[in-house]
Specification:
By secondary structure, the chain is an alpha/beta fold. The chain has twelve helices and 16 strands.
Length: about 300
């Protein structure tokens, strides 16, 4: 397929930087930027270079992600690996300047030399320590830091009740709790909040037809439609788009192409925006019945990715 006709993905690093600055100024505590899954598809190394002087650390899923992005070499900021670390040795984490997360006595004991961080289960029930085992894991790992995956204030309160006033660094808030000062504690871990509005995905009309007859695999009917290169394999789904700045709909999605509603003046070569220019991650998440994070990750792999910083 012609690469020039594929969708293109533009990441605005100045927007990521502005988002990070706004979060830091608002919360006044450490900001640990979540750059797992290649920064939700934006490019972890690029993001780290853009905000390394603003944030106080990074969160990845595992050691391999930190290594792949050369995070320490890029930004010289602390790194936390929040996923499982089975089979990894303390020396590997120390060499990469990454701290592992632990939630069992066995993990904490094995990784003590890597200065592990305790993850407490307050409701997620995933990769986290039950409340009745917190003391044992803390002691085994000599942990000086603990956190939880909180989506409601009650989860933050559970963490504080268990470990507050003990001199530990505590953090609980991801993007969903940045509006709650009581959730900020000693740090916040924004993910999607860093990336909102920073990605623009576009394609171009390859065909433009007057119709009114059944078309496509499903036999949709539209008075006028166009075809773009980009389909399921590019992360695209049914939902809104912008054609020459006008909000339209994607009528049918195939594996590598899609049918798009167009107006009378729209023609071959015109631009179709799949994300950006006012068509937000939240708009698409609502239409797709999914999350903003999912939308971001899907569409950042829609085509060739480039970065700009105004």
């Amino acid at each position: 397929m012609d690469r020039d006709r594929q969708p293109s993905v533009t990441v605005d690093l100045s927007r990521v930087r502005a988002n990070a600055l706004a979060i830091r100024r608002r919360v006044g505590v450490d900001v640990l930027a979540v750059v797992k899954a290649d920064a939700y598809g934006l490019g972890a190394a690029h993001v780290a270079r853009a905000i390394g002087d603003i944030v106080q650390g990074f969160c990845v899923f595992n050691l391999a992600e930190a290594r792949a992005a050369d995070l320490w070499e890029t930004a010289k900021q602390p790194i936390l690996a929040i996923g499982p670390s089975d089979g990894m040795e303390p020396a590997e984490f120390v060499a990469a300047h990454v701290r592992p997360v632990v939630w069992t006595v066995e993990q904490a004991t094995r990784l003590r030399a890597a200065l592990p961080v305790l993850c407490v289960d307050t409701a997620m029930q995933r990769f986290a320590c039950p409340a009745d085992q917190v003391e044992s894991v803390l002691a085994a790992g000599q942990c000086g830091e603990a956190f939880t995956h909180a989506v409601r204030l009650e989860h933050v309160r559970i963490l504080s009740a268990l470990l507050g006033n003990r001199g530990l660094k505590l953090h609980a808030a991801g993007s969903s709790l940045l509006h709650e000062p009581a959730a900020w504690l000693d740090g916040v871990r924004p993910g999607i909040a860093l990336y909102r509005g920073a990605v623009r995905v576009r394609a171009h009309l390859l065909e433009a037809r007057d119709s009114g007859r059944p078309a496509g695999y499903g036999g949709f009917v539209a008075p006028r439609f166009g075809v773009i290169q980009g389909g399921y394999s590019n992360g695209l789904r049914l939902g809104p788009c912008l054609v020459n700045g006008v909000r339209r709909n994607i009528l049918e999605v195939g594996m590598q192409s899609a049918f798009v509603q167009i107006g009378t003046a729209d023609k071959v070569g015109d631009e179709v925006v799949l994300l950006g220019d006012g068509l937000s991650e939240a708009d698409l998440a609502q239409s797709w019945n999914t999350t903003e994070q999912h939308v971001m990750f899907e569409l950042t792999r829609a085509g060739r990715r480039s970065h700009r910083c105004a």
